[in-house]
Structures are given as C-alpha cells and as structure tokens.
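RETRY 2/3 - previous attempt timed out on the joint model. Re-submitting the same 1093-residue input unchanged.
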Amino acid sequence: MAKKKTTTTASTSRSKRAAERDKATLSKITALAEDVAKSAYKGKDIAIAIPTRTRSNTVWNRKRGILEMGDNKSSRELFNLNQAKQFMQTMLHSSSIKELIEAQKTLSLRGMFYKGLHTIAGTKNEKTFAAQDESDSILEDLEVSLGALREELHVFAENRGGMVGNITIVDKGDEIDCRRMGSGGYQIPSITEPDILQFKKVDAKFVLHVEKGTVWNRFNEDRFWEKHNCILTHGAGQPPRGVRRLLQRFDQELQLPVICLLDNDPWGHYIYSVIKQGSISLAFESSRLAIPRARFLGIRAKDYKECDLSDDVQIALSDNDIKRAGEIAAYPWFAENRAWKREIDQMLRNGFKMEVESLITKDISYVTETYVPERLKAKDWLD
Amino acid sequence: MSVAPSLPLLDEMTRSHKSPPPSAASASSRKKPSKSAGRGKATAESMATMQRDISVSEFFAKNRHLLGFDNPRKAMLTTVKEAVDNALDACEEAGILPNIAVVIEDLEPSRPASAKQSRYRVTVIDNGPGIVRKQVENVFGRLLYGSKFHRLKMSRGQQGIGISAAGMYGLITTGKPMIIHTRPGPKKPAHHIELAMNTKTNRAEVTVDDLTEDFPPQRLRSINAGTRSADFLSHTDFPSGTSVSIELEGRYQKGRGSVDEFLELVAIANPHAQIAFVPPSRVSDDDRDEPTLADAAANTDAAADAAAPPKKRASKDAEIDPSITTIERDGVTIFPRATNDLPPETREIQPHPRGIELGILIQMLRDFEVENKGGGTLYNFLQEKFSRVSSAKAGEFCKTIGVHSRTKVSDLTPAQVQHLFNEMQEAKLPPPPTNCLAPIGVRQLLAGLLKGVKAEFYAASTRAPDVYRGRPFQIEAAIAFGGELPAGDTARVIRFANRVPLQFQQSACSSFKAVVETSWRNYNLTQSRSSLPTGPLVVMIHMASVWVPFTSESKEAIADYDEIRKEMKLALMECGRKLGTYLRKRQAMRRQAERRDIFERYIGEIAKAINAITGEDPKKLYDKLLEEARKRTAVADATLDEEGRMVKKDEADEFRDDEGVVFVEQRAAHLQEAEPEEQEAAPANAGGDRVKLTRRKKTSKKRSSDSKLF
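RETRY 2/3 succeeded.
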C-alpha cells in the first residue's frame, strides 16, 4: 500500500508533459519489440538499428557551434555470433525499462545492471551481464536507438556536482533556496529536466562553473556568489549530464552567461570543450547539453607571469599531456579560434601546467578576491 | 706401438673368454691354493696368499644391485622380468606364438600387516621349445652362460646373467632351490629338476631330478577362481615349454616400477604374445593403488569382456582391432594377443669393420689362427669374419698395410695390425646389413598401444636402420593422445630395448633425453623448457639392436650415443607432426561446436523479454525464433558437417592411407562433446545419416529447454 501511495503522490506532481513523454517512450519500446517479433514471424533478419557512437560518426555543426551525431547506423543482429549476446541484453533492458515506466520508478545505472542480471536458462553459469559496463553501454545504445533520453528511460546516474547562489529552485515540488545551502551546497541531481527542476526566484547575473569541489569550497567559504551575485557550480571533474543540462538551462532559459574556471592543462581544456560543444559519446544529446556561449576564464598560460607565481606551482607536461594538447588543438572549434590556438601554444611553450589551486600560493583567497573579480571586470576570457 | 706383447692383461682376458668349457671356470678357483700364512708384517709373499680368483657368481652375489636386486620390490620385478624375457626369446627363436603365464604366490599370507617384505614364489611358464635335460644346469645354474652373448643377433637377453642371478637371489634369501619343469616336446615326458647354485664354483647342484607328466604344473591351476578356468594353463596352449619357480624374499606392490606395469609394457611391445598374470592374493599393506596404464580400462571393460573368452578375441590377421584390451577377471589378468604375426626372424651378423675395437680385432685374428690351425690368410679373414667387406675391399686392405693377400694372419706384426685397424676406421664401406634387426613395426606398435593405452589418437613411425660403433640399430616411436589419459600431467614415456621394457633410471636414458629435446610445442602441445611435454600423452620409444648399449648390467637405461638420440628425435618428430595435424583439426572442430550453441542460448531470454513488453505469446515466439535459429545453424551445420566430415575424412582417410596412425573415434572427446549421439553413427555412412541425427539432437534439446522456460 505504501508503495502505491508514493506512486500517486509522485504522479500528481508530475507535469502532463512527463506523462506524455512516458507514453511516447513506451510506444517506442513496444515498437522495437514488435518489430523483432514481426521479423521473426516473417523469417526476416532480426536486427535493431543503432546509431553509431564513434568519432567517425560525429559531425561538427559549425553553425550551431555544437557536436552532433551523424547518420551512420549499425545493425545489431540476433543471428550474428558477435552480436547475439548484445542483442539479448538490449531486449532485456527494454523490458526492464518498460517495467520502470509502468511502475513510475527510476533506477541507477548499477540498479539496471542488477535488474537485468541473472543466469541464462539452460546454461551452467553464464550470466546475462558479465559486468556493469556491459549494461551501461547497452543503455546508451537504447537511448540513441529509441531516440529517448536517459531520464526518459527512467534511468539515472549518481548525483555529482554541487551548486550555491542567488537562486531558488523547485526540485520535484520541493522549494530549495540555494542561498541557504551551508557549506555543502545543493547536490545537482542527474536529471535536471524542467519537469523535475524548475527555476523560481533568480537574482544571479551569471554562473561561475569551477572544475572541482575543492575550488568550489574556497569560493563558497568566501561567499563569492553573494558578493558578486552569481550562481556557483562545480562538476567534480568532467561534469556529468545533470550538471551540463542545468548549466545549459541557465544559459538558454535564464540567459545567464556561463563562465568556467578550470585548470591550465589539456584536461581542463577538454572539459571546457565538452561543456561548450558536447562530447563524442553523447553527441546525440548535444543540442540539450552543449553551451556554445560558455566562456573560459582561466587558468591561463600567461598567468604564471601575469600573477607572478612561484616556480613551485609548475607541473611539467608529460608526453601524454603534449600529445593530448596536440589533439585538442586540432579540434575544429579550437583550430579555428586564434586566441585558443595561442593559448594552447603558450602552454606548450611553457612546458608546464597549473592547477587553479596554484593561485593559493599568492594568498588563500587570492583567487576569489583578486583573480576572478579582476578578470571578470576586464572581460579577460576566452570564447 | 707394439700390440700383442704389450697387452698381457688383455691376452689373459681374451683367452679365458674365448673358450669357456665347463672345466675352465671351476679350475680357476683352484688356481691359487691357499697356504696359511703367519700374521705379521705383510710381505709380497704373504699378500700373494690372499690374492685369489673371484668367481662371477660370488662377485654378483655381493653386488646384486648391479643386476637389479637392490631391494625386495625390485628383486621381485627383476625375477619376473628375466624369466619372461627368456620365455619370449625361446618361443620366438622356435617360431612359436608365445603363451606366457606369470604366477606370484604369497607364501606368508598371515604375516603381520607391518611387514615390509614377504616370501613369494614366482613362477613363469612358457610354451616354448623346452630345454634339453643336460643343458638345464648350465642355463639356470650359472652366471655368464648363455647363447646370446657371443653373437651379434637381436635378442632380449644379452649377457647370460638374468635368470641364474634370480635363482641365486632366491637361494640367498630363502635357501630354496629353483624348480624347473621343462617339456621338450608334446610327446616327450617333462623333466622336474630342482637346482641350487653354488656361488663359489658358479655351478648348479641338482637336488631333485625326475621325470613327470606334470607340465604345465597342475598345482598352479587351483590358486583362485580364475586359474581354475579351463583356459588357464591348458595342455593345448602349453604342449611343450618350460616353467621356472623361484622362491624369494620380495615385495609385491603396484604402481610405477611394478610387475603389473612391466607385464603391461611387455604386452604393448609384444602384441604377438598372450600373457596371463596371477597376482598374489595379498599385496603389501601400504600398496599404493596408483593406476597403471590400463587399470581403468581393465576395470571398466572387465564386465563387458567377461563373456568372450580371451583366445577368441585375438584378431585373425594383422588388422588392428581396438576392442582388444586387457581383461581382468577372477584374479587373473589377461593381456590378449593382438596379432598372430611373429616378429621376423633375425639373422646373426658378423661385426662391421667400422666401430670395432683394437683388442677385439686382435682377438679375432687369434681365433681365426686357431680355427685354421695357424694357416688362415688375412684376405680370407677379412672376407669371412666381417660384414660388408667385399673381395675387392679385402684386397685393398691388404695392399694398404703393405702385405700380400696370401699373408697368413699369424705373420702379421703388431704394427701392421694397428695399421689395419686404423684403415678399417677410415675405409668407405656400406653400412652393416639390417636383416639382423626385427623392429616391432608400426602396425604392431599401434596394436600394442591400442591394447594397453586408452587414447583417441595413435601414431607410430619406424626409422630406417642406422649404425653406432659398427652395430646396426633401429629406432621406433609411437604416441598415444587424448581419450582417457590424464590431461594435467606431463607425458609418460615408456621405453623399450629389444622389446624389453625399461622401467628405471628414466632420466639417464637416451630416449628420455630425446623426448625432452623434441620441441613438442610445434605440435600444439605445452612443454616447459627442458622438460617433458604436458598433456594426455604417452610416448613410446623402442630401440632394436644386435647390442643395446645399456648404462649398467641391470639394463635400465640406454647409453646416450649421439647417433641413437638423433634417430630417436627424428622418429618422435614424425609422430609429432601427425599429432599436430590431428590437434589442429580437433581445435577447429571444437570451436565450430561452441559457436553452434550461441544463438540457441539467448533465444529463451529474448522471447521472455518480448513477452514482457508486448504480451506476445512467448512459446510461439520461442518456437519461431528457434526455428529461425535452426534454419541459420542448419547452414552453419552444413558447413560444419562438411568441415566435420572433412576432419573425419582426414582422420579416417588421410590417416587410413598412413598406416602409422590409428584414430579411435569413440574416445575422441571433442566429438562426444559436440555431438553426443554421433557415436551411434557408423563412420562410413556419416554423410547420409548425419542430417537425421542432427535433427534428432535439436529436438531433444528443444524439449529440455522448453521445460526450463515455461
């Protein structure tokens, strides 16, 4: 009985649109299954078309400034020795998702792995999934082949990333004042779609996104968001989809500029690239994740001299870093951007990288009190 | 270098060697009469009184380990072995298909369980030609007396030590004489003789000597149920022959180096022999029941085979019949005859000039001089006493050392003899004749292995004869793979010299080194550095030679001559190549079989998932998917069939053309796994029946999956 109650309360708070989307997802899954059965009865090849998620099938849409998925599709066949198991796994997850939608519940990626996990009938101990990554990749396949987002499949990832700032939001009906989040901040959920999360009272004028929690803590402790009237987010490294979607909604719905403070190394550059243009593996979602207007505030290669940092902050570039920097420099959106080309060249010339924390050598709050405010004032950022 | 005068020791040795009349040996002990010398400072004279001849018997009585009597267990084995070797030699020389019975009686069945050894009576009976009365004492009662030492002819025994030493060991440990029954012909009465050896004189003393009709001895037919059977020791099987009984302190224990293993190996190397073995009723308490090669086979087949009497199982021609295996019932183990072809008779040969030693040459010259009463010419000597010396070559030799072809051998100077010897080593001569060798032959090797080893694949090869130190020899190798052999162990090497199994000192043996040095990895087997290959493999090596170079008198290992080891490796490589071909095909076959199941495995899951989504009838969908899968695998099946048949065709046809290979399909693990019902199909009509079989299999499989699913 208790279960039913929660379901009802959840469904009442859900928007009409969400219910429609569930209906659409369900019909897509049903169509997929019916197609398989139909092919079987007709004696045709039994296969599912899955858009390929590879670099070769990723297209740089210069006009929109985002990465998009190409039209290449691969066929996953049942009667192909290398694909038979994946085919079976795809069907298993399809039925699990149907069950989730009907029960109006969600599961984590790991939960989905366990949902589908059992010993295959008629075998001694062959499991349906050998490890979670098999299950994860099947879910991504389903997303693209059904043309449905992960949250539409009622699957979510671990919460990651945090937020504070001059904004009040509504998360599943609960009003959350991000000005009163203490030292921990609001944990950004993996699904930040409008039907889950709505904006209410927005005072902030821009968003400052930092790379990781430690730096974010520094800014939060110094009440940076209060002083500069902004929203402060972090993505715990490469930001997950929930954080990216939220940033994009700030940009699109609230017209808030998104400004990134990342490390001066190829990894930091890559994170910026993902936030701005989207990633290869999630290219099919770029249109709702990528923020072409996002800006890169720092750390810049010139900062070593400009901020008069000590030698101690230098971390030598490894061979791998140099190689990675070359690859990133070749991305069309960087290659066509002179300022970026110079930036990467300068980093390579420096021969070292710097973390945001390197500014602490100047003063504990140098980054919040001097560095960021000055750069913002000077509009000294990369686009 | 002067030869003859400077070699007094050699002279002494060779003289006593050349004429061993019975009196000579006994005379030797009288040679130095002992005078009682006063104790005190030893002088040359007083020491001289202590110096005396040593009889060979005395020497070996003290050094019995040299002959293989180091411990009670090995003594038992050596006794059986010497008697069986003699029995087989005797039968073969007389052209009789050997029937051998080995009976071990426990004479102290009530001994305490902790006893490390016990008293046994070992009796070996053969159906050979028997022994004439006056030779009995010499054959069984003296060391270094025999027919085999002086000639260059292939035989099991060589030195004339074996059986007499066994009798001597029995006498020393139990005080009981050796009992011999021998019937020289079906119509003749049997002699019953009991012999006790006098080690001082190297002569036997006869304690009992009478005539009897009791051959084969009836006493042995009442030991247990098996021996009471009419087939056992029947007069028809043993119309003539010899039975030797020796009582000894020994120990009967199974496992490696046991009597059981020995007989099993003898049966492998002598498929023309039928051997019955009655083990003692009680074995040593800590008997490790380590299974020997055919133990498993014997146990499983015993019931099935019990119906057919063993004699009828022997095949009528040289065709190999894999169904002939060791049978054990009612306390009698029978190693049935697998072929009725006796090994070809071997010729005695003259020594080959190359490889002869100087001392031997001098002795031969002297013997020739005596034979011709001082008148033989060198030319005749060379022609008559050596193999492969043509008249032209003999003349050439005479010319090179600067003597006339009519020069008498007595007129040769030591320098000329040395020169002749050198020339002989250098001369270009054809290799020695090989009709002195009787290899087992590939078919017989395979028949023997099939009988003793339950494997699925057998290959054998016989090399062409070669020569070491002027003595011809021939190497044969065979391998057995898969089937019921243990897969995790290192390969087992079984070694034979002139059809006699070698059970000890494996690592000292040339053949072992040859196996280790062969690169088995080339043939899809695993092998770590400088060790035996690992896998379900038995490697068999046989060396046939007029004189097998053993490392010791107990004949346990073959000396490591380069020529011999090289031939062994070549023979092994030939077998290995055949095995490699087979294994590669087996692997391909297995892969195919695995692929077939993949689709069927997932169909159940898919049907269930679709049912959950659309409500589609799962049973109907499952059947449809299975039908589709079957349709698709039918294509795969066809190719598999074709390939499978190709594999079989290869195994049967290609290998049928090759008489060095036998493939036992029933035991091939991969075929059983892939198609359990395949065994029922005769290989000949595989093509037509195959489809039906496959379908039947699928149906049954479907049914079982159904029950699990719904």
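The CA atoms of residues 245 and 704 of chain B lie 63 Å apart. Closing ticket.
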